[in-house]
Amino acid sequence: LLLVHHAQRYALVVLPDSHREMLPAFRPGDRLVLYRHPGFSWRYKPGDVLWVQSLEKSSWMLARLVSQDSGRFAIQDGKLMRDGRPVSGRNYVLPPGLNKEFAPLQPGQVFLVCDNQAESTADDSLVRGAFATSEIEVDGKVFLNLSEDNKK
After folding, report:
1. pLDDT tens digits for range 74-83
2. Is the pTM of this model over 0.70?
3. What is the phi-psi region of residue 37: left when phi exceeds 0, alpha when psi lies from -120 to 50, beta otherwise?
4. Out of 22, 40, 99, 117, which could bridge 133 as a Cys pair, Cβ 3.0 to 4.6 Å?
């Protein structure tokens, strides 16, 4: 009933076969319920998984919000680092031995990362750097995964 009553607040996305950027958390074919906020909302928190479109590429991706305020990001020996410390809470699958530095996050920018870089074809922040919130469209954050494999 809640889903019907507030239909404009929710959306259902079936993850296409080409979207492998968030394995193993989300798999192609997963049915994801998104909670929607128009545009980019500062209500999103680090760790939220967003269904986001880069306006430059006009392609959609699932990506985890790593930061929306500040920080200097780098990849050191295949580990995602923020301000010289490993980013906690996720084990990002990055190529071993990879080293890369990014420009510091500025006000109005976000750092969005796909969990599985080995399977990803998405242009997330590890590929292109931080996104200005004006460069992306966020359809919502993943609120619920309705797929059988994830009900365990």
Report:
1. 999 888 999 9
2. yes
3. beta
4. 40
